[in-house]
Amino acid sequence: VKHSKFNESGQLLVFYLASLGWGADIIVREGYVSGISQLWEGYPHAVLPFIVKIFFIIQIAYWLHCLPELYFQKVKKEEMLGRIQYIALYLVFITAAFVLNF
User: What is the pTM assigned to this prediction?
Assistant: First the structure.
């Protein structure tokens, strides 16, 4: 049981660090650091850069994969609701940002 929590925490840590690095790279390459107003100027954006779309799709895919993983990890019923809630929140916000081209 303790190994399960450690494995999940390690997996989340790796995912968060990779996402942070990739997101920071996108912010720098797309020039959002020097011109943060690009995020809202001309909204709704007709076209998002390809790398931004891929970033969103990878994020959505990761959080969707977490749902069946709960079954395979044999998560206790007491912990299930909390995990489903944070997975659902991530999915809602990331999907909304992707659909709204933000």
Answer: 0.78
